[in-house]
Amino acid sequence: MTGYAAGTADLARGRLSVELRSVNSRYLDVQCRIAEELRASEPALRELIAARITRGKIDCRVTFGAQAVPAGAVSLDSAALENLKRLAAEARKAFPDSAPMQVGEVLRWPGIIAEAPLDDEALRTSILELARRVVAELCEARMREGARLAAIVAARVEEMHRRVIEVAPLVPEALAAYQAKLGERLREALGSADAERIRAEVAVFAMRSDVDEELTRLATHLDEVKRTLGQSGAVGKRLDFLAQELNREANTLASKAAGIKIADCALELKLLIEQVREQVQNIE
Fold it and tell me: Which terminus of the chain has fewer Cβ atoms in its 10 Å neighbourhood, N or C?
């Protein structure tokens, strides 16, 4: 299912941002785009997402925008400062006419200002806390879409139920008409064939054209789809399997159809089943 969620958190050293995008996929595929200094949080992020989501391609983006460092968080690196003094003294010996370094130049010298290091553990905790909120928001968005998809699937299932109920009474009539027509053609083709031979051929045809079992299985699978839609939790893979079974039975019904109306019903069922299959692949 598709969805989008994002959140930010203001920390002492900058702004943390977590963004999640979800698109349809039969399996779970998590792609993380994380700044290098935050990379240690990736395994925990993947675990957090996988605990709540089982299907979909998830794009997870985590960024940290550093802000100006507070005055209390910086100081001069005494070792670097001493080393700079030594280098400056040596340089003045080599170039006695050169001007001494200004304070601004000293402060801009690489390594002179020492910033307090980021607390990696605190930052990791902040990332996971924010990610939990964003994942929960994404799941809510996916649930809303899932409810809409479930309503569409339920409507298609009801329509298929009506088709199965409508076609059931047509089967005996279609079989009788087709058997009579087959018997007449056999008499014309075989000429002197006895009645026993004709009855045997008609019986074989009747056995091959009996679709009661297919109609029963179709109704059973449709009932199972409705029951599954009413369950909580992940049901997408179960619905996908049931759609495959429905398609199998509809194909058999079409191949054994003894009349135009039954064949038309089988075709309509296949179209409805294909619509269901397209939707259930997006349901978690």
Answer: C
Q: What are phi and psi of 121, to 5 degrees?
A: -65, -40
**What pTM value is reported for the model?**
0.58
Q: What is the DSSP letter of 111?
A: T
pLDDT at 41 over 80: yes
The answer on 88 and 18 residing in a single domain is: no
Q: Residue 58: left if φ>0, alpha if ψ -120 to 50, beta else—which one?
A: beta
Radius of gyration of the chain (CA): 36
**pLDDT per residue as tens digits for the range 67-109:** 545 555 566 777 878 888 888 888 888 888 878 878 777 777 7
∠ Cα 166 172 178 (to 5°): 115
Distance between CA atoms of residues 81 and 62, nearest Å:
36
pLDDT above 70 for 273 = yes
Residue type, 146: G
CA quadruple 97, 103, 107, 113: dihedral sign = positive
Please check whether residues 38 and 62 belong to one and the same domain: yes
By three-state DSSP, how is residue 211 classified?
coil
Q: Are strands 3-11 and 28-34 parallel, antiparallel or unpaired?
A: unpaired
Which range marks the domain in which residue 151 is found? Answer: 143-280
In degrees rounded to 5, what are phi and psi of residue 68?
-55, 135
